Amino acid sequence: MKLGKLALVGALTFGGFTAVEMIKPTSQAAAAYEEPYSDPYHDRWGFNSESNFTYLSKFPNEHMIKSSYRTGDIFTYSLSSIKDGSGAVMKIFKMENGKPVRYRTIYPQFDANHQNPNWSTVITDVYTPGTYIAVINHVNDSIGYGASNWFTI
Questions:
Q1: Which domain of life is it from (predicted)?
Q2: How many Cα atoms are found within 13 Å in the side-chain-facing hemisphere of 8?
Q3: Which of 82, 92, 100 is nearest to 151 (CA)?
Q4: Phi and psi (nearest 5°) for 101?
Q5: Which partner for 88 in 44, 84, 121, 132 could form a disulfide, CB atoms 3.0-4.6 Å apart?
Q6: How many other CB atoms are found less than 10 A from the CB of residue 60?
Q7: What values do phi and psi take at 9, rounded to 5?
Q8: 64, 57, 45: which is closest to 116 by C-alpha?
């Protein structure tokens, strides 16, 4: 009887650890780059007016960004000529009353060779109608920030 109880306790304990690891994987979380939380109205990147985006370099493959999206569309952008790391974060900003408001932060996905970063998200009802711009902070310091053309949802 004691052996049965011991086996049951061991199985439940192991199952609990396995469930926790599946819900919140420690190795993946430790390896992934994530920015600390910042207020969407006062993003850490410091953009505070529409004019901040005027002089940013344009995306090399800017034709990949459509001029208009609808709910259910997939916003996707990829690079094949620039090697970037996992810290190359994309943020989508919406202009509200002349000020940019961060709507989404997207981390890149990579192909099998850890090259060709791809940023992708589904346009949902969270994106209210308006004018948006996507900005990438490239890991490669010679590039810095890059911006898409303005698009609407």
A1: Bacteria
A2: 5
A3: 92
A4: -120, 125
A5: 84
A6: 14
A7: -60, -45
A8: 64
